[in-house]
């Protein structure tokens, strides 16, 4: 019986020491979180891609808009012309207008797909770059964990001091601006050399 009590006491001592060691290790963790939604909305590289996408969409949409306007004019005059030209003409013209409306819809879908195909890889590249940057930032600054949060997230509460979104955003934008300056100066140097 004494041996059992001695073993039980020893086990409890080891368990409590182990618990204290784990508590000490846990309190040594350096953690933070980043609001991914704010990063995505505020990151200059994403904003530039969005602007480029809008410009491209406007350029591609000009022809489509002109065709849509022409279609609307013809559809508006269809009813008056149908009365004058008879039911047989109205039926043929109605089928033609339906076919053109479907073609315009397909053109719009094709344009949207083309834009998505062009800009999705660029967005994915920026997202990957952002994730790599956060990972490197965490290693460089001694973080054990950096969590992600957004509108719907698994982090329901954290002290504001753990939020490093602004730091990450500033460094990412500074890196992007630095890269843009380097690319701009390289292209300006190439242009000057071509002039010579």
UniProtKB/TrEMBL annotation:
Keywords noted in UniProt: Signal
Region named Disordered: 175-196
TM segment ranges: none
Signal peptide (from-to): none
Recorded superkingdom: Bacteria
InterPro entries: Chaperone_Skp (IPR005632), Skp_dom_sf (IPR024930)
Pfam families noted in UniProt: OmpH
Similarity comment: family membership: Belongs to the Skp family.
Record's protein name: OmpH family outer membrane protein
Originating organism: Flavobacterium arundinis
Lineage: Bacteria, Pseudomonadati, Bacteroidota, Flavobacteriia, Flavobacteriales
